[in-house]
Amino acid sequence: MQIDCQYHDKDEGLFIFWDVLIDKFEDNIIDDLFSTYINFLKDLYSSNKTWNEQSLNIQKSSLLISKEMKIPKQSLYEQFSQTVQNNKKK
Question: What is the DSSP string of the chain?
Fold first, then answer.
């Protein structure tokens, strides 16, 4: 594991922390990745549209290759719900 994402939901809001093996990444890429991740979470929070997207357009730093990532036909919410159902038994 090269990035471990942890979060805590508190009265003041959602706190997100990344533990990173910094020597595994190019300079400055972690800041760009984290910023992109936070912006994505903000989009999920503020709009139902993002939950129903069939692909994610990831464009950020020149360090990251701009590409469109295909995801399954299910919405993100449907995928999440399915994962919860599959792991209830564990």
Answer: --EEEEEEEETTEEEEEEEE-GGGS-TTHHHHHHHHHHHHHHHHHH-HHHHT-SEEEE---TTSPPEEEE--SS-HHHHHHHHHHHHTT-
